[in-house]
Amino acid sequence: MKPARPVACTALAAALLLTGCSGDNDAREVPRGWIAKEYGRDGLDYVDRGDGPSKVAGEIDDHRSAFSRTTSGGRVFLRYRDDIVAVSPHLGGSRIEIDDYRDGYNRWHSHVGHVWPAPGSSGNGFRGGGPGSGK
What residues make up the domain containing 50? Predict the structure, then answer.
């Protein structure tokens, strides 16, 4: 009868530990609220009238780390779980555009297509060798 108490305590501790580890549901999500508060609105996009794309992208990435970051054509792209943030030069500052991953990938394909996986893919191009379907 005494072993039941340590087992129950161990199970409770494990459950609390697992819950604590998975508590950050917004990790790797675009910090939309923070961007809206930090930068001015310009139509559907956001702007920083004084800082260039590299600095603005760095601020966003510092606030919430992106999966990946790439630079192309003067723009900086941040890849989050389901979204792409494009930071472009704009009137001496920067324009910040947020697209869901599929739309952003298609829109910015010439800049990110050689670096990031196509939407819905596993992220690598290896399809196996030998006979069989699905290649």
Answer: 27-112
Structure-block tokens of residue 123: 């992220």
Query: Three-state SS across the chain?
Result: CCCHHHHHHHHHHHHHHHHHHCCCCCCCCCCHHHHHHHCEEECCEEEECCCCHHHHHHHHHHHCCCCEEEEECCEEEEECCCEEEEEEEECCEEEEEEEEHHHHHHHCHHHHCCCCCCCCCCCCCCCCCCCCCCC
Residue 38 domain-assigned (yes or no):
yes
The pLDDT score that the predictor gives to residue 52 is 98
pLDDT averaged per 10 residues in sequence order, the chain, 135 residues: 54 45 62 94 95 98 96 97 96 97 96 94 53 51
Looking up tokens 């990435």 gives: 61
Q: Report the domain count for the chain.
A: 1
Return all residues near 43 (Cβ < 8 A) that are at least 6 apart: none
Beta bridge partners, 99, equal: 84
Asked if residue 44 is part of any domain, the answer here is yes
Main-chain phi, psi angles of 66, to 5 degrees: -85, 160
